[in-house]
TrEMBL record, chains A, B:
This is TetR/AcrR family transcriptional regulator. It comes from the Bacteria. Residues 1-54 form the HTH tetR-type domain. GO terms for molecular function: DNA-binding transcription factor activity; transcription cis-regulatory region binding. The keyword Iron does not apply. Residues 17-36 bind DNA. It comes from Nonomuraea turkmeniaca.
């Protein structure tokens, strides 16, 4: 998996191949195919092996500050070079390969969603998040605007953008009287 | 382009090829390559040729009802079969092909963004949307949670989901006092 990540960083996802990974790792390609039936699954496992504790939410008692810090860390890691383009390639693979989609959701999105809900539930109990806010939507609402920028407009993912999104989501679109 | 759409619906995006489109259209493949240098660009043009007026925003004076109606129409068209999987394939292509990414943004996302901002600006002037709401974020905030579901979790895009997202975005995450 280290060979996969090293090669992916050097050549990009499109040029990554199981053959090249086998050569770099000094292994037979059948050995690799036995464990990972597709390039997408090998790449998913390799990315997950980074296992960055940076993606955990802190709990300082200030939910907005904690979300900001966690999302800064996530976008610094996943939305900028070198991992940004590789993460985009992984999401592209998710559109074509149901096995990659299932693995990505079970092993990355679902645990992230659970952490997000847990942190927001605490904030809700402390009166920092509206008691009406639908926690099941938390991941879609908080990360949707980030994925929109990463995958659709492909504009740079700056801390300023994160700040503006959090401000808008907390304030809401309705006028406050 | 009709041949492209017909074939894409029959075979899916992965199996679509310029050769097959040429055969279906009774044209030479070089004729097609001269106009569309890649399958991604041909597919983008073909999808845009649908030119659904359904994607325009109504203005009945009730911004929440109008957004709901427009987003229902958009998800009915773009997030469900037959176009859902093809739209997912197009977004996957956007991750790999900068020419498709540029065309998709200039010719689809940018005009949709402008329409969204125009409708929300009217609502803001009428006091239905907070004067502090950052209109430049409107498209990311409104459509981000929909793209998250379409591209990441790939759960069904229901009207109920749209309703819950709009409710959460209008109310905001902060408690209202």
């Amino acid at each position: 998996m280290q060979a996969t990540l090293a090669l992916a960083r050097e050549t990009g996802y499109a040029k990554l191949s199981i053959e090249a990974v086998a050569a770099r790792a000094g292994a037979g390609k059948h050995t690799i195919y036995r464990r990972w039936p597709s390039k997408g699954l090998l790449f998913l496992d390799s990315l997950l092996s980074l296992n960055e504790p940076v993606l955990d939410y802190p709990d300082t008692g200030d939910v907005l500050a904690d979300l900001r810090r966690q999302i800064y860390a996530a976008v610094d890691l996943l939305a900028n070079p070198p991992w940004g383009p590789l993460y985009q390639a992984l999401v592209a693979e998710v559109q074509h390969d149901p096995a990659v989609a299932a693995g990505f959701n079970e092993r990355f999105i679902r645990p992230q969603t659970d952490k997000t809900i847990t942190r927001l539930k605490t904030a809700q109990d402390q009166g920092q998040v509206s008691p009406d806010f639908d926690l099941d939507l938390a991941m879609a609402i908080l990360s949707g605007p980030l994925y929109f920028r990463l995958l659709i407009t492909q504009e740079p993912m700056t801390h300023d953008y994160v700040d503006r999104v959090l401000q808008a989501l907390f304030a809401g679109m309705s006028p406050r009287h």
